[in-house]
Write a structure and sequence with these properties.
alpha+beta; six-stranded antiparallel sheet; 12 strands
């Protein structure tokens, strides 16, 4: 049972729902209409709240989730914590925020640092980043010593996440417990970022119609040879500022295969060739348009080999961060390595006035590509 509820409900898997912008009685009755009798309820600080069973315990075959959109008419907001979505498998809680009947934000406590979804996955990103629960400072690196167990600070991380959410929405206590404000065991403050403005180099880091892989930890000879041996001889290659790089004509190779190779180069498949694990980091960039496939346009899931993600950073054989760029596509990303810079530039967030002032702002993703290049210190391949 979670430790951040004011009361405990032994033997029950419960949800905690808050609503504002509608009378408390409407929330309570709406839950009853969906066969969820409140186990506890109240009003405080402008919010109505109720704790109720996650499933309909009166019907053994009714496992339908509550449709909170029905409880959230125009002008209303609903905040939901699903405290134990699957206690049998010990899955972490879920969080959801509804506004005007639509899902604005949803994430699991298990992977919120990798992916959040909804109409605006970055609705709370500024607060989460400021609290150090997302972004580079939130990633635990101690596991690499082979001794540290990240589960030792999992409860503390969860409490900090709930406290950040509660503060952002002004949620009352009770029904939430009085949450401590203990510092993170990863006590590293978020890195301050400057809004993107004047940048010294005007050339694009990757040319249109081109795929590029930058690698550090190996030289350009090693990189080009590995790519050629894998069946992808480079069109051009070079080395500068600690990075080796190779490029391909996008019409000559499949982007999905090249981006996959960029990830493989950092993992166990090449450990022996490159002299040990965790030696190589890569950045894959695509100078081709973002995928417009009907089932892949709005999600951080690659749906075709011909349209790779336009940016991918890999280490240890894993893609740490990847997304498409331009026209707000950065909100549908995996990973928060660049969240601070994207927030500072007004590309993501709850408020994005740059788009309102100029509908064409960052339409081609050039601002984002420059942020990527500056973050990693990438040399231009053009």
């Amino acid at each position: 049972m979670t430790t951040w509820l004011h009361d405990t409900f032994p033997g029950r898997e419960v949800n905690l729902a808050f609503a504002r912008g509608l009378p408390a009685g409407v929330l309570f009755e709406g839950l009853r209409e969906q066969n969820r009798e409140p186990l506890a309820q109240g009003e405080a600080d402008g919010w109505a709240w109720a704790v109720h069973d996650m499933i309909n315990v009166a019907e053994d075959t009714d496992y339908e989730e509550v449709d909170y959109g029905r409880l959230c008419p125009q002008g209303a907001e609903v905040v939901v914590f699903v405290t134990e979505p699957c206690s049998a498998k010990a899955h972490g809680p879920h969080f959801a925020y509804y506004r005007d009947g639509r899902t604005t934000l949803f994430f699991s406590f298990e992977d919120y640092r990798q992916q959040r979804v909804g109409d605006n996955p970055d609705h709370l990103s500024a607060e989460l980043f400021a609290a150090g629960v997302i972004g580079p400072a939130a990633e635990c690196e101690e596991w690499k010593d082979g001794v540290h167990d990240c589960y030792e600070h999992e409860d503390a991380d969860e409490l900090r996440l709930v406290r950040t959410i509660a503060d952002a929405f002004g949620l009352p206590s009770p029904p939430l417990a009085a949450l401590p404000r203990d510092p993170s065991p990863l006590a590293v403050p978020p890195v301050a970022t400057e809004p993107v403005g004047a940048v010294g180099e005007a050339r694009p880091v990757v040319a249109p119609g081109t795929y590029a892989v930058h690698a550090r930890g190996i030289d350009v000879t090693e990189l080009a040879a590995a790519c050629a041996d894998a069946g992808y001889p480079a069109r051009t290659q070079g080395e500068s500022d600690g990075w080796a790089w190779v490029t391909w004509d996008a019409a000559a190779v499949r982007g999905g295969e090249v981006s996959q190779l960029a990830g493989f180069l950092t993992g166990f498949r090449y450990d022996e060739r490159f002299g040990g694990p965790d030696r190589v980091e890569t950045v894959f960039l695509s100078g081709t348009p973002a995928c417009t496939c009907s089932n892949g346009r709005h999600y951080s899931v690659q749906h075709c080999e011909d349209h790779p993600f336009q940016f991918q950073n890999s280490r240890g054989g894993f893609e740490r961060t990847y997304f498409n760029v331009g026209r707000g596509r950065e909100t549908q990303r995996h990973g928060d390595l660049l969240v601070g810079e994207l927030l500072a530039a007004g590309i993501i967030g709850r408020e994005t006035p740059a788009y309102e002032a100029d509908p064409g702002f960052n339409a081609d993703g050039a601002v984002t590509m420059r942020i990527i290049a500056d973050h990693f210190g990438l040399p231009a391949t053009t």
